[in-house]
Amino acid sequence: MSWSVNVSTTVTVPVSARYIDEFLRLKCAPDLLRFFNKCQHPAKEVTETFAAFRMVRKQLGSENFGRNDFTCIVPGDGALPRTGATMAHLTRWEIISVDPALKEEGENAFGVERLQCIKKRIQDCRLYSRPNLVVLAVHSHAPLQAALDIASNWKEALVIAIPCCVPQAIQDREEYLKCKMSSTQDMGIFSQKNEVLTWKIIRASR
Ligand SMILES: C[S@@+](CC[C@H](N)C(=O)[O-])C[C@H]1O[C@@H](n2cnc3c(N)ncnc32)[C@H](O)[C@@H]1O
Predict the structure, then answer these.
(1) How far does residue 167's CA lie from ligand 1's centre (Å)?
(2) Residue 4 lies in a domain
(3) Backbone angles phi, psi at 163, to 5 degrees
(4) pLDDT value of residue 30
(5) Is the CB of 78 under 6 A from ligand 1?
(6) DSSP letter assigned to residue 81
(7) Ligand 1 centroid vs 29 CA: distance in angstroms?
(8) Is residue 95 pLDDT above 70, yes or no?
(9) Residue 6 domain-assigned?
(10) Which helix (H) or strand (E) holds 160?
(11) Could you tell me the distance, in angstroms and rounded to a whole number, from the CA of residue 121 to the centre of ligand 1?
(12) Which domain holds residue 97?
């Protein structure tokens, strides 16, 4: 005689689809789709970019999205600038994606207004920033500190990094009046690499 026993367990996985919902509800979703739908894991990429966007909104408030004194630098944005294109659509800021792998370069790249693409390593650029600087490094392999060091003129910076295999760090330089770092895990990111690092920096006037 043989016995069979059926055992069932319920495992609650703390995952949220909020970023996919947010993306699908956007008026600009059809325009952004071409940046996401050609990669291997589009949903994962959407969640990474929108986790960075959510942290910007949490730290600065969406009331700042219409201002024209912000520059957003996106180091290591990939061949198709997913995060840069998303930020250009969702804010009125100047957006600069920097990656040697970019498929297009120049102003209004990929037909996106206010998106500048620079096909270089971040450490080889020299950029003039507006007074408020936002740096978004989404699974970037670029050296994070370089994004601050190569940008002149900024007074306050918000740096957000979602690291994958290359560690992402900011050094507390003497020229910074304040450099405060925080870290959270975001279960809305469809990847084990779901730590979101945030630095808020105020620079001494020069
Ligand atoms: C894992 S990919 C991530 C691409 C994109 N952020 C994404 O999430 O799909 C890492 C990117 O970092 C870029 N990268 C590596 N070193 C860099 C550097 N020094 N400056 C700018 N980009 C760099 C690579 O070319 C690559 O596109």
Answers:
(1) 13
(2) no
(3) -75, 150
(4) 96
(5) yes
(6) T
(7) 23
(8) yes
(9) no
(10) strand 156-162
(11) 9
(12) 18-203
* Percent of residues, the chain, with pLDDT higher than 70: 97
Mutate to test the pocket of ligand 1, among 140, 168, 194 (most ligand atoms within 8 A of CB): 140
Query: Which segments of 26-90 are extended strands (E)?
Result: 70-75
Label residue 206 by pLDDT band (50, 70, 90).
Answer: low
Query: What average pLDDT does the structure give for the chain?
Result: 95
DSSP 118: E
Q: Is 74 in the pocket of ligand 1 (CB under 6 A)?
A: no
Say how many C-beta atoms besides its own lie within 10 A of residue 39's C-beta. 14
CB distance 81 to ligand 1 below 6 Å: no
- CATH at residue 30: 3.40.50.150
Q: Could you tell me if the CB of 46 is within 6 A of ligand 1? A: no
**Torsion sign over Cα 140, 29, 23, 71:** positive
What pLDDT is attached to residue 10? 76
Segment 2-54, tens digit of pLDDT: 777 888 887 666 778 999 999 999 999 999 999 999 889 999 999 999 999 99
Pairing verdict, β 132-138 and 151-152: unpaired
Query: How many distinct structural domains can be found in the chain?
Result: 1
Tell me if 197 is assigned to some domain: yes
Measured from the Cα of 48, ligand 1's closest atom is 8
d(CA 3, CA 147): 64
For residue 8, is it within any domain?
no
